[in-house]
Predict the 3D structure of the following.
Amino acid sequence: MRQLGLYVHIPFCVKKCRYCDFLSFAGIDNSVYSTYVKALLRDISHRNGSGFSVDSIFFGGGTPSLLEPIDLEYILAKIYQQFSVTPGAEISLEANPKTLSKSKLIAYRNLGINRISIGAQSMDDKLLDYIGRVHNSADFLENYRDARACGFKNINVDLMFALPGQTKTQWLNTLKQVIDLEPEHISFYSLQLEKGTPFYQMFEAGTLKEMDDETDRQMYWEGVYLLEKCGYFHYEISNAAKFGYKCRHNLKYWSMEEYLGLGLGAHSYVDGKRFSNETDLDTYIQSGDGSFIVWKHTNTYQDEISEFIFTGLRKIEGISLKKFEQKFGISLIDIYKNEVNKHIQKGLLEIDPTDHQLRFTRKGIDLSNTVLIDFV
Ligand SMILES: C[S@@+](CC[C@H](N)C(=O)[O-])C[C@H]1O[C@@H](n2cnc3c(N)ncnc32)[C@H](O)[C@@H]1O
Ligand code: SF4
């Protein structure tokens, strides 16, 4: 049996945050949620799970915690009907502070959801308001403590830094407060100004200043040192976890393992093919005949190699040169001798002499885009 991860997209939010370009809709009547869930159930029924054993399920968004537990129950029941799910599979759900309650959390636990990812973003109320969040730090703290009290033993907290006007001290204070709560996993993302968002428009109009690179990098590295000092293992560019708590699902994306995306706009990688679902909500809801997939691409051998390097280098341990050779029947160094040597000389890449892992140096992480472009 091949292992498979399932990603389930829930495209609804209470309000759109000013920086966010994820596929999600705000201000939608709640009655649409159940119509969407019905379409999602049809989507799942059209998938063929034979030969696969599902070892991770990830409800992402949007804001999956907006759904009533009964809707998640329907979705999980359909998944269990259609796929063989490994006992002990990691089942994660992204939740926004202020959309959680003790009764919802207890219901999630009873459904077998064993990992919850809470989007705190910052512990600074003024910043939270400015970036368009509906919650404040007290809402987050209440939900976090409720999640623990309801039995969640694997909690991730999402944070953002390099927010407009944020100082390094503010960022490190946020991080310290979150570390004090002892979540098993912390994700920390540098704000990206995405086209089409209110923040991007403000940036173009000159009313929002992008954080300078030097401060952004100082925030990043001081954050990483603090996390490491407090017992977190920095295992991916933007992710750190306590021992044994790396996110199994997200590791699939960085290791070119197979995953199936269910729901609006969800992406999949199965059998060397990349494909994705309809992104128009009305069309998705009306699709009744299994025609949810609107884009397909069969990876060429070269695509597979580039993607393996691109995604693998996001892991701090890097890529195993031995595994690369086993997978592709050729040595990575034979294909990219000049590129690898160039970036080793510039101090951006290194090869560990003991485990033969190719990875970014710390300087390489800061300049990762200039390295990755050479492997496309
Ligand atoms: C799929 S999103 C949403 C999860 C959840 N709805 C929330 O907002 O709490 C996952 C994470 O991506 C991060 N994120 C979203 N947009 C971003 C941006 N433009 N720049 C950096 N990080 C971003 C946020 O930390 C967010 O929690
Ligand atoms: S960041 Fe999260 S809550 Fe905010 S709009 Fe994006 S998906 Fe929704």
